Fold this sequence. Notes:
alpha+beta, Rieske Iron-sulfur Protein, Zinc Finger, Delta Prime, domain 3, 4 domains, seven-stranded antiparallel beta sheet, four-stranded antiparallel beta sheet, binds FE2/S2 (inorganic) cluster
Amino acid sequence: MSAHSATPADSPTVESNIVGNLAELPLGGMKLVKVENRRLCLVHISTGVHALDNACPHEGYGLTTGQLDGELLTCAWHNWKFRVSDGRCVIGEENVRTHGVDVADDGTISITLNEPDPAELRPQLLASLRRGIERDYIGQVSRDIVRLLRADANPGELIWEAVAYGAPRAEFGWGHSIASLTDCLSMVDHYDGDDRALPIVQAIAGVAEGERDRQTRSLPDPVSTLPPDPRDAFRRLVESERLEPAQALVRGAIHSGADVDTMRTWFTDIVSDHLLSYGHGAIYAQKAFQLLDRIGWDRADTVLPHLLPTIVYGTREDKLPYATMFMRGWAASDLVALAEAAASPDAAWTDDGRLLTALLGPDRTEAARAAVAAITAGASLDAVLDVVTAAVSERMLRYVVAGERDFHDDFGWLDITHGMTYANAARWHLAHAGPTPDLVRLVLWTAFLANWTGRHEWHTTVGRRDEIEPRSHDLAAYGRSLQHEALLDGTTAFIVHAHAVKMSVSATEEALRLGSTSPLDATARFMAAPKLERFVAATVTRSIDFLSGKTQRDC
Ligand code: FES
């Protein structure tokens, strides 16, 4: 017969352990005890003796150093408060686990550890994870992710929680958070056990931080009957910036059974019609489909319609004055003929230096001509992308970092990185679509971006190439080390973190394709270099310029 006992709601699974005697624990007292390598906080209050995990869920400091007031225990470190009878967190983010306590007639206290089967806890943990994402409580998210991984949750399912929360809230459609979700999910493969939490939590943190307190945006109903040529109709809707009809059509196609191959062609079409927002249209479409490959096509009706705003309303850079000179270089070219040439390339083609030199030079028209000439001379589109990647790597290795402080110009480190991620995205679209006229156009845009991201060199000086010592000549290992580094909070602003993540992933793929460390060396330099992160001072400078009647410099 027990004198006092307290049993937590979750059923205990192990036998009881004697931890002391009531005579040693006066009313209002607390004591640290150890059971099977687990530290517990034993508390004696008027309702009985209770046992809680001693590690505070906040940052793990011991609860026995806290203050007891009735049945409320306040952690000494940051003031979280817990009800000792059931571990409920009254102020703070997360409950603390309680354990079964039995006090025998002779005062012997024994504890039965409460260790519920993790798999049975999964629904509770998922609900807690959702609350953590919603409130942007990264500590709670992080602990729940570790618990869920221990309960054999699939990493893709955990990332899906961030997709389901973030996609309907993204104000202008999916942005960098989608790229990070995809890239971080791919990085999970580099880790084992609990360490898999790092890329997952980094990915979720971006969404939680970016979309907190935003209204959800509803989608239009799917069209019930598809038009005769839905792919073409979709393309025209996007071209005329009719977002809701385009979303309704995508949803209608998905609901009527369109598969991933079909929908991919629709999205490759619309991201090759224009150079969208420094390449982001093509990049985000690539990441969205890669994400769906991992989390399942049945999530397409959430991912793809919410991706559309960023593409429909993306800046069409090819319509801006600065693109005119580049377009002059291929205006006379027939994209169909170029696609035919690219379909039967000369395997022996290599750049004799002319394309690389033109891409790195200041003459935009010449850059376009050189890209067209390469395709005509037998270069495959992949081979052109190889040179684009080499040019962007070179730019990043010689970027004069002082340019970050030229607040009158909005150009900086992040802009150059897009040259690499855009080329990588074009390569992904090419792998699925083949060398069509649309893909020729897309590849030519990557050549333009590689050229245009040199514009800082045209009004300053060309920097000296920074000779980076490769971390490894095992390219995959080198890439993994940079991807890991991108997850280690070396950046403060999410936007810069997201660029480090996507750059490290695309540079790994490009380095493996090229058989060269250059893309990785360039990424290592970018990650180690001083960078603007907040952009407040730069924005103030440009606001003053704007209100003084000055415009952005146009090379
Ligand atoms: S460690 Fe307990 S409140 Fe911070």
